[in-house]
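#struct-pred
JK: can someone run the complex with S-adenosyl-L-homocysteine? inputs below
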Amino acid sequence: MNKENSCLVASSFIKKYKAGYPLITDETIQANSLREEGMVFRLVDESNEFIARAYYGKQNKGIGWVLTYDEQEVIDEAYFIRKFQAAFQQRKSLFRDLETTAFRLFHAEGDGIGGLTIDYFAGFLLINWYSQGIYSFKKPILKALEETIEYRGIYQKKRFDQGGKYVEEDDYVVGERGAFPLIVKENGVQYAVYLNEGAMVGVFLDQRDVRRTLRDHYTDGKTVLNTFSYTGAFSVAAALGGATKTTSVDLANRSLRKTIEQFSVNGLDYEAHDIIVEDVFHYFKYAVKKELTFDVVILDPPSFARSKKHTFRAGKDYPSLLKQAIAITADDGLIVASTNCAQFQMKRFKAFIDQAFKETGVTYQIVEEFSLPQDFKTTKSFKDGNYLKVVFIRKQTLK
Ligand code: SAH
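RT: done, structure tokens with the ligand placed:
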């Protein structure tokens, strides 16, 4: 252990790390320190006093993560076993819930290891590796999983640059091979998922509470427009909640068959709903021209998206997106505004909402607010980790 490299923390950041900040960035450590993917090193202050033990792994957010604040704690298989046991213990109620078979088992820095997430899909595990560095711990991590959880098989996604290559067979790791689509349940709703099709699994697990609330309280007897609809997960939740009709709009060709599939696995007649492959911004113009309005309008754009005619950046363009939604929302209707953009927090998101309504001259009321659900565990010392913001906004009629 004496050979372990030490890395001096820039003095202005020492307090932050001592308070539990987990992310290593270029600014926080000495520039000339050795940086090898997967290398474990000590973070120290000017007097060579131990602060934390971290690993080096370059990803979009930073260059590594703290693994422990305990100088005695070694990073080995037993370390991963302890982390997994603690995390799985906290998901006990989800394991017991027979109506939900898809959830997050391990959420990166929230569960103590940045750059690593593990999802549970009806007995299969899906590991997301966010850097070459964390991937280099694959062996002890797989062994630790074997020790801590019963599973049918393991799949993986390497979400880091591999020289531009994506190798498909790479998705399967060990155990039983899944038959895809795998049908999972979420609060009784079925979703078809694929663990072997690259980044596209088919359902974003962090919206579970949002989908349930939408289904149980806001869609009965309503018309629903779901924009940036992907596989139509919100549309399915709305249809099961009693929506008279849902309209799903997404630019990607695949969204048509993927949405048909999600409706079908729930025994819903997809032909009674509209599934439109089109640029959302086009669709808004079309709807205004045809004087269409919807009782519920769902907005869930990516943080950044480029289509032929539009570039959308959530941090800048969300107010304008909201204004277009307000124009086609029925009086007393509901807008579900969602963003997973980590660059701004709820306060700023609400300022965007306020700006859009003020500029439109319409009053509103916020009726529901969501951030990440419990299984997407976050830590107070890393606020940016809580990237999800969802606000249900009631458009008010002026009487
Ligand atoms: N709301 C979805 C997730 C959205 S993912 C869900 O809950 O499952 C973002 C989606 O936006 C992608 O499917 C992408 O194809 C789509 N998209 C990006 N830009 C778009 C645009 N300009 N018009 C329509 N869809 C767009």
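RT: quick notes.
The pocket of S-adenosyl-L-homocysteine is lined by residues 204, 207, 228-231, 233-234, 249-252, 255, 279-281, 300, 302, 305, 307, 310 (CB under 6 Å).
The longest strand covers residues 329-339.
JK: thanks, will look after standup
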